[in-house]
Amino acid sequence: MVEEELRYWLALWRVKGLGIKRLTQILAHYSKLSLFFSDLSQGKKMPFLIDETSVLRCKNPDWQGVEKDLSWFHQSEQHHILTFKDPSYPMMLKEIHGAPPLLFVRGDVSVLSRKQLGIVGSRKPTMVGLETARQFASALAKKDWCITGGLALGIDGAAHRGALQGVGKTVDVLCTGIDQIYPRAHKELYGTCGENGALVSEFPCGIGPQAAHFPRRNRLVSGLSQGVLVVEAALKSGSLITARLALGQGREVFAIPGSIYSEQSQGCLKLIQEGAKCVSNVDDILDEFAFRCIGFEAASCQSTSQPQSQGQSPIQANAKAEEKSFIEASKLVTKAFSDYEPKEDLLATHVMQHARVGAPSDAEAGRSSLDILSLLSDSPVSLDTIIEQANCSTHAAIVGVQSLMLSGKVIHEPQGYVLKPNM
Fold first, then answer.
1. What DSSP letter does each residue of 252-300 carry, written as one string?
2. H or E stretch at 144
């Protein structure tokens, strides 16, 4: 696209209150936006602009802001602005309702078209949650999956780091303009992800974080992905919004179960109750997509090779074909996994690591549990405080609190560990 036409796209995208719906109507009516601005300057009636305020705003767009966008665009060959008509615009995103007409991308544009899995969760996760997100992301990256998230603190950040540790690619969807870093604590991660994947935003340059931006960002995380994995989430977590957006977009939703006593597990448990796939290792996710792919291929073969039976309605014929396709798909799945050997469970691995070389002995772990129990009350105590006051190693502290949680004596809250109330 020539820069002059791109300038008009940017100008309309910056018009306050115009919205995706009206902009989409304009794009459907005009082959070039320069024609729209020409008609506008000639005073022609615009059925897309329902009030005089919208007309005035389109006549006087933020050209200074447009120059800021173009300045960013010209700073590097790794800076891209994709319009909805650009062949590099990701097809997965085009499928969703309300896909943004413009995307600002820093990094490798081709990554946006790779198979992606969104990994999201709490901003205040447990240590187990952080490690689980990291390990899942790393393992999936090694299987050639791109990990997508919102560059948020907590689970999102751990997933991005895990993908990079797995020598994979990651896509970070921003809730700000592409030139803004939020949260500031992820400044280094922002740079690393831009060099090993892509940073994506629908917001023009200079736009800071706003409350309304977070759900808009979440819809892009799910829209770019084939599925979304929720690692840890409270009942009011924004991650549940992402999961429900994913369902509405026809994506798969996965959730990792946790303790019924942990506030950070309640969102995942609720998602599982509502039908999300419960997973405890990466193969649970891979198997789901393997089945879908095999089923799709079988259905495609069936529909192209079997003519419609005489005397049957299209609905009856389709139902029969679907039944046969499912049977064929089941056979293919059985064959594909006949030599399947279960991989190591990542959740179990994380806990069992501490029983290996360098971890505390059973006697030491027992003493640590008693020491930790004596430190706890109804006021939350952080893991760092436990390590310091119990005078034990990190391994011993983790094993100790896990043992106490499994025995039902201790629960985890966002601020730390507390004694479980008498029930």
1. EEEE----TT-GGGHHHHHHHHTTPEE-SSHHHHHHHHHHHHHHHHHHH
2. none
Provide CB contacts within 8 A for 421, sequence distance 6+.
378
Cα 117 to chain centroid distance, Å, stands at 7
Closest CA to 133 of 117, 121, 151: 121
Residue 360: predicted pLDDT: 47
- Compute the Cα dihedral for 151, 231, 403, 372 and give only its sign: positive
3-state class percentages of the chain: helix first, strand second, coil last, to nearest 5 = 55, 10, 35
* Cα 358-258-217 angle, rounded to 5 deg: 105
Section 415-419 average pLDDT? 81
pLDDT tens readout for residues 382-394: 877 888 788 877 6
C-alpha pair distances (Å), 105 with each of 11, 71, 160, 211, 215: 18, 14, 17, 22, 19
- State the Cα–Cα distance between residues 350 and 347, nearest whole angstrom: 5
The answer to whether 281 touches 254, Cβ cutoff 8 Å, is no
pLDDT in tens, 48-71: 776 788 888 888 999 999 999 999
User: Percent of the chain beyond pLDDT 90?
Assistant: 50
What is the residue type of 385?
T
Q: Is the distance from CB of 376 to CB of 419 less than 8 angstroms?
A: yes
Cα–Cα distance measured from residue 228 to residue 116, given in angstroms and rounded to the nearest whole number: 9
Backbone angles phi and psi of 253, in degrees to 5 = -125, 125
Task: Quick: pLDDT tens for 22-53.
Answer: 888 888 888 889 898 888 888 888 777 767 88
Is the pLDDT assigned to residue 309 strictly greater than 60? no
Under 8 Å between Cβ of 223 and 92: yes
Helix (H, G, I), strand (E, B) or coil at 23: helix
The one-letter amino acid code at 337 reads: F
Angle at CA of residue 25, ends 102 and 93, nearest 5°:
40
